[in-house]
Design a protein that fits this description.
This protein is mainly α and about 300 residues long. It has one domain: Rhopdopsin 7-helix transmembrane proteins (Up-down Bundle). Helix content is about 75%, strand content about 0%. The chain is built from eleven helices and two strands, in the order βααααααβααααα. A two-stranded parallel sheet has the order 1-2. α1 (about 15-40) packs antiparallel against α2, α2 (about 45-65) runs parallel beside α6 and α2 packs antiparallel against α10. The longest helix has about 35 residues, at about 85-115. This is Olfactory receptor.
Length: about 300
Protein backbone atom coordinates (compact mmCIF):
# COMPACT_ATOMS: atom_id res chain seq x y z
CA UNK A 1 0.00 0.00 0.00
CA UNK A 2 0.92 3.67 -0.37
CA UNK A 3 0.06 5.95 2.54
CA UNK A 4 -0.97 9.37 1.23
CA UNK A 5 -0.77 11.29 4.50
CA UNK A 6 -3.44 14.01 4.72
CA UNK A 7 -5.05 14.40 1.26
CA UNK A 8 -5.65 18.02 0.35
CA UNK A 9 -2.95 19.26 2.72
CA UNK A 10 0.13 17.88 0.95
CA UNK A 11 1.83 21.30 0.97
CA UNK A 12 1.54 21.39 4.77
CA UNK A 13 2.86 17.90 5.46
CA UNK A 14 6.28 19.10 6.61
CA UNK A 15 4.66 21.70 8.90
CA UNK A 16 2.30 19.08 10.35
CA UNK A 17 5.20 16.74 11.00
CA UNK A 18 6.92 19.25 13.30
CA UNK A 19 4.27 19.32 16.09
CA UNK A 20 3.67 15.56 15.73
CA UNK A 21 7.39 14.90 16.14
CA UNK A 22 7.64 17.17 19.20
CA UNK A 23 4.60 15.52 20.80
CA UNK A 24 6.05 12.08 20.09
CA UNK A 25 9.39 12.99 21.67
CA UNK A 26 7.52 14.36 24.70
CA UNK A 27 5.49 11.12 24.89
CA UNK A 28 8.64 8.98 24.77
CA UNK A 29 10.48 11.04 27.38
CA UNK A 30 7.52 11.53 29.73
CA UNK A 31 6.24 7.96 29.72
CA UNK A 32 9.72 6.43 29.93
CA UNK A 33 10.49 8.67 32.92
CA UNK A 34 7.17 7.83 34.57
CA UNK A 35 7.62 4.11 33.95
CA UNK A 36 11.16 4.27 35.32
CA UNK A 37 10.01 6.08 38.46
CA UNK A 38 7.28 3.55 39.18
CA UNK A 39 9.63 0.62 38.55
CA UNK A 40 12.59 1.95 40.56
CA UNK A 41 11.00 3.84 43.49
CA UNK A 42 9.92 1.52 46.29
CA UNK A 43 7.56 4.18 47.66
CA UNK A 44 5.52 3.99 44.44
CA UNK A 45 4.55 0.31 44.76
CA UNK A 46 0.90 0.98 45.61
CA UNK A 47 -1.61 -0.37 43.03
CA UNK A 48 -2.51 3.18 41.97
CA UNK A 49 1.06 3.83 40.79
CA UNK A 50 1.51 0.35 39.32
CA UNK A 51 -1.58 0.97 37.19
CA UNK A 52 -0.08 4.29 36.18
CA UNK A 53 3.00 2.38 35.02
CA UNK A 54 0.77 0.14 32.88
CA UNK A 55 -0.84 3.25 31.39
CA UNK A 56 2.59 4.64 30.50
CA UNK A 57 3.58 1.35 28.85
CA UNK A 58 0.37 1.29 26.78
CA UNK A 59 0.98 4.91 25.74
CA UNK A 60 4.50 4.07 24.57
CA UNK A 61 3.26 1.16 22.45
CA UNK A 62 0.32 3.12 21.01
CA UNK A 63 2.48 6.07 19.94
CA UNK A 64 5.47 4.04 18.73
CA UNK A 65 3.37 1.70 16.59
CA UNK A 66 1.92 4.59 14.55
CA UNK A 67 3.83 7.87 14.82
CA UNK A 68 7.24 6.92 13.29
CA UNK A 69 5.57 5.73 10.07
CA UNK A 70 3.30 8.79 10.07
CA UNK A 71 6.37 11.04 10.32
CA UNK A 72 8.06 9.15 7.47
CA UNK A 73 4.97 9.75 5.33
CA UNK A 74 4.65 13.44 6.25
CA UNK A 75 8.36 14.07 5.62
CA UNK A 76 8.23 12.23 2.29
CA UNK A 77 10.78 9.63 3.39
CA UNK A 78 8.74 6.45 2.96
CA UNK A 79 5.09 6.18 1.96
CA UNK A 80 4.95 2.48 1.06
CA UNK A 81 4.04 -0.27 3.52
CA UNK A 82 3.63 -3.97 2.87
CA UNK A 83 0.35 -5.77 3.48
CA UNK A 84 1.86 -7.79 6.36
CA UNK A 85 3.42 -4.71 7.96
CA UNK A 86 0.13 -2.84 7.57
CA UNK A 87 -1.86 -5.57 9.35
CA UNK A 88 0.79 -5.81 12.07
CA UNK A 89 0.70 -2.07 12.64
CA UNK A 90 -3.07 -1.84 12.95
CA UNK A 91 -3.17 -4.94 15.18
CA UNK A 92 -0.55 -3.60 17.61
CA UNK A 93 -2.01 -0.07 17.66
CA UNK A 94 -5.56 -1.25 18.30
CA UNK A 95 -4.45 -3.77 20.95
CA UNK A 96 -2.57 -0.96 22.73
CA UNK A 97 -5.65 1.28 22.52
CA UNK A 98 -7.95 -1.39 23.96
CA UNK A 99 -5.40 -2.26 26.65
CA UNK A 100 -5.13 1.41 27.65
CA UNK A 101 -8.91 1.67 27.83
CA UNK A 102 -8.93 -1.41 30.08
CA UNK A 103 -6.26 0.12 32.34
CA UNK A 104 -8.26 3.36 32.62
CA UNK A 105 -11.26 1.27 33.71
CA UNK A 106 -9.10 -0.50 36.30
CA UNK A 107 -7.90 2.89 37.57
CA UNK A 108 -11.51 4.02 37.96
CA UNK A 109 -12.23 0.88 40.01
CA UNK A 110 -9.10 1.62 42.06
CA UNK A 111 -10.39 5.12 42.89
CA UNK A 112 -13.86 3.71 43.68
CA UNK A 113 -12.46 1.20 46.19
CA UNK A 114 -10.09 3.80 47.71
CA UNK A 115 -12.96 6.25 48.35
CA UNK A 116 -16.01 4.04 48.85
CA UNK A 117 -14.37 0.98 50.47
CA UNK A 118 -11.18 2.37 52.06
CA UNK A 119 -10.91 -0.28 54.80
CA UNK A 120 -10.89 -3.06 52.19
CA UNK A 121 -8.50 -1.34 49.77
CA UNK A 122 -5.38 -3.23 50.86
CA UNK A 123 -7.15 -6.59 50.65
CA UNK A 124 -8.90 -6.01 47.32
CA UNK A 125 -6.15 -4.28 45.35
CA UNK A 126 -2.73 -5.91 45.50
CA UNK A 127 0.26 -6.20 43.17
CA UNK A 128 -1.05 -9.61 42.11
CA UNK A 129 -4.32 -7.96 41.03
CA UNK A 130 -2.35 -5.38 39.04
CA UNK A 131 -0.53 -8.21 37.28
CA UNK A 132 -3.86 -9.84 36.44
CA UNK A 133 -5.10 -6.50 35.07
CA UNK A 134 -2.03 -6.23 32.82
CA UNK A 135 -2.45 -9.74 31.40
CA UNK A 136 -6.22 -9.32 31.02
CA UNK A 137 -5.85 -5.96 29.22
CA UNK A 138 -3.42 -7.32 26.62
CA UNK A 139 -5.38 -10.58 26.20
CA UNK A 140 -8.62 -8.67 25.74
CA UNK A 141 -7.07 -6.45 23.09
CA UNK A 142 -5.59 -9.40 21.22
CA UNK A 143 -8.87 -11.35 21.29
CA UNK A 144 -10.84 -8.33 20.06
CA UNK A 145 -8.43 -7.53 17.22
CA UNK A 146 -7.66 -11.04 15.93
CA UNK A 147 -11.01 -11.39 14.04
CA UNK A 148 -10.75 -8.11 12.06
CA UNK A 149 -7.20 -8.98 11.01
CA UNK A 150 -8.48 -12.37 9.80
CA UNK A 151 -11.36 -10.60 8.00
CA UNK A 152 -8.90 -8.29 6.24
CA UNK A 153 -6.74 -11.23 5.19
CA UNK A 154 -9.67 -13.03 3.56
CA UNK A 155 -10.70 -10.02 1.44
CA UNK A 156 -9.61 -9.83 -2.22
CA UNK A 157 -7.57 -6.78 -3.23
CA UNK A 158 -7.76 -5.79 -6.88
CA UNK A 159 -4.95 -3.31 -7.33
CA UNK A 160 -6.11 -0.22 -5.41
CA UNK A 161 -3.06 0.66 -3.33
CA UNK A 162 -3.50 4.27 -2.13
CA UNK A 163 -4.56 4.59 1.51
CA UNK A 164 -5.54 8.18 2.49
CA UNK A 165 -4.00 8.10 5.95
CA UNK A 166 -0.68 8.38 7.76
CA UNK A 167 -0.89 4.85 9.22
CA UNK A 168 -2.93 1.70 8.68
CA UNK A 169 -6.42 1.61 10.19
CA UNK A 170 -8.94 -1.24 10.05
CA UNK A 171 -11.72 0.31 7.96
CA UNK A 172 -9.28 2.32 5.85
CA UNK A 173 -7.64 -0.92 4.71
CA UNK A 174 -11.01 -2.68 4.27
CA UNK A 175 -12.18 0.02 1.84
CA UNK A 176 -9.28 -0.84 -0.49
CA UNK A 177 -10.72 -4.32 -1.01
CA UNK A 178 -13.04 -5.23 -3.86
CA UNK A 179 -15.04 -7.81 -1.88
CA UNK A 180 -17.87 -7.62 0.64
CA UNK A 181 -16.70 -5.49 3.56
CA UNK A 182 -19.97 -5.55 5.53
CA UNK A 183 -18.59 -8.01 8.11
CA UNK A 184 -15.70 -5.60 8.72
CA UNK A 185 -18.08 -2.66 9.12
CA UNK A 186 -20.34 -4.44 11.58
CA UNK A 187 -17.50 -6.02 13.55
CA UNK A 188 -15.73 -2.65 13.73
CA UNK A 189 -18.88 -1.05 15.11
CA UNK A 190 -19.35 -3.89 17.61
CA UNK A 191 -15.72 -3.53 18.70
CA UNK A 192 -16.22 0.19 19.32
CA UNK A 193 -19.38 -0.42 21.36
CA UNK A 194 -18.03 -3.38 23.35
CA UNK A 195 -14.61 -1.94 24.11
CA UNK A 196 -14.12 1.84 24.56
CA UNK A 197 -17.84 2.70 24.80
CA UNK A 198 -18.47 -0.10 27.34
CA UNK A 199 -15.40 0.93 29.34
CA UNK A 200 -16.47 4.56 29.30
CA UNK A 201 -19.94 3.61 30.57
CA UNK A 202 -18.46 1.55 33.41
CA UNK A 203 -16.07 4.39 34.28
CA UNK A 204 -19.00 6.82 34.38
CA UNK A 205 -20.86 4.43 36.68
CA UNK A 206 -17.90 4.18 39.06
CA UNK A 207 -17.63 7.96 39.16
CA UNK A 208 -21.33 8.26 39.94
CA UNK A 209 -20.78 6.08 43.01
CA UNK A 210 -17.67 8.08 43.90
CA UNK A 211 -19.53 11.40 43.70
CA UNK A 212 -22.35 10.01 45.82
CA UNK A 213 -19.83 8.89 48.46
CA UNK A 214 -17.97 12.21 48.33
CA UNK A 215 -21.17 14.20 48.83
CA UNK A 216 -21.79 12.27 52.05
CA UNK A 217 -18.40 13.17 53.56
CA UNK A 218 -18.83 15.48 56.57
CA UNK A 219 -16.11 18.05 55.96
CA UNK A 220 -15.35 20.26 52.98
CA UNK A 221 -11.64 19.43 53.22
CA UNK A 222 -12.31 15.70 53.00
CA UNK A 223 -14.51 16.23 49.94
CA UNK A 224 -11.84 18.30 48.20
CA UNK A 225 -9.15 15.73 48.99
CA UNK A 226 -11.28 12.87 47.67
CA UNK A 227 -12.09 14.72 44.44
CA UNK A 228 -8.44 15.72 44.07
CA UNK A 229 -7.40 12.07 43.87
CA UNK A 230 -9.77 11.63 40.90
CA UNK A 231 -8.93 14.87 39.08
CA UNK A 232 -5.91 13.57 37.16
CA UNK A 233 -7.73 10.40 36.13
CA UNK A 234 -10.78 12.33 34.92
CA UNK A 235 -8.53 14.63 32.86
CA UNK A 236 -6.77 11.66 31.23
CA UNK A 237 -10.12 10.01 30.42
CA UNK A 238 -11.27 13.18 28.63
CA UNK A 239 -8.01 13.44 26.66
CA UNK A 240 -8.10 9.78 25.66
CA UNK A 241 -11.71 9.10 24.72
CA UNK A 242 -12.89 12.35 23.12
CA UNK A 243 -10.74 12.40 19.94
CA UNK A 244 -10.67 8.59 19.67
CA UNK A 245 -14.45 8.09 19.74
CA UNK A 246 -15.03 11.04 17.42
CA UNK A 247 -12.51 9.57 14.98
CA UNK A 248 -14.05 6.09 15.12
CA UNK A 249 -17.61 7.31 14.64
CA UNK A 250 -16.69 9.82 11.93
CA UNK A 251 -14.89 7.07 9.99
CA UNK A 252 -18.02 4.90 10.01
CA UNK A 253 -20.93 7.36 9.92
CA UNK A 254 -19.57 10.76 8.94
CA UNK A 255 -17.68 10.09 5.74
CA UNK A 256 -19.86 12.53 3.81
CA UNK A 257 -20.22 15.14 6.56
CA UNK A 258 -16.76 15.23 8.17
CA UNK A 259 -13.96 16.25 5.75
CA UNK A 260 -11.38 13.49 5.33
CA UNK A 261 -8.49 15.71 6.41
CA UNK A 262 -10.28 16.48 9.70
CA UNK A 263 -10.75 12.78 10.38
CA UNK A 264 -7.10 11.98 9.59
CA UNK A 265 -5.82 14.83 11.76
CA UNK A 266 -7.99 13.63 14.66
CA UNK A 267 -6.76 10.07 14.14
CA UNK A 268 -3.21 11.36 14.53
CA UNK A 269 -4.14 13.38 17.60
CA UNK A 270 -5.52 10.46 19.60
CA UNK A 271 -2.35 8.38 19.13
CA UNK A 272 0.07 11.13 20.15
CA UNK A 273 -1.66 13.79 22.29
CA UNK A 274 -2.82 11.58 25.22
CA UNK A 275 0.56 9.78 25.42
CA UNK A 276 2.31 13.17 25.47
CA UNK A 277 0.03 14.81 28.04
CA UNK A 278 -0.72 11.92 30.41
CA UNK A 279 2.67 12.09 32.18
CA UNK A 280 2.29 15.86 32.51
CA UNK A 281 -1.22 15.55 33.98
CA UNK A 282 -0.17 12.92 36.51
CA UNK A 283 3.10 14.67 37.25
CA UNK A 284 1.25 17.87 38.14
CA UNK A 285 -1.87 16.42 39.81
CA UNK A 286 -0.33 13.50 41.76
CA UNK A 287 1.59 14.79 44.77
CA UNK A 288 3.87 11.78 45.28
CA UNK A 289 4.97 11.66 41.64
CA UNK A 290 5.45 15.43 41.49
CA UNK A 291 7.66 15.22 44.59
CA UNK A 292 9.75 12.39 43.10
CA UNK A 293 10.19 14.37 39.88
CA UNK A 294 11.31 17.44 41.81
CA UNK A 295 13.81 15.35 43.77
CA UNK A 296 15.11 13.78 40.54
CA UNK A 297 15.51 17.13 38.82
Amino acid sequence: FVLLGVPGMESLHAWLAGPVCLLYMAALAGNALLLGLVAADKTLRAPMYQLLGLLAAADLVLATSTVPKALAVLWGLSAEISFTACLTQLFVAHVAFIAESSVLLAMAVDRYVAICQPLRYGALLTQRVVGIVAVAAVTRGACVMAPPVALLQRLPYCGQRELPHTYCEHMGVARLACGDTRPNVWYGLATTLLSPVLDLGLIATSYAFILRAVCRLPSHGARCKALGTCGAHASVITLFYTPALFSFLAHRFGRHTVPSHIHILLANLYVVVPPALNPVVYGVRTQQIAQRLRNLL
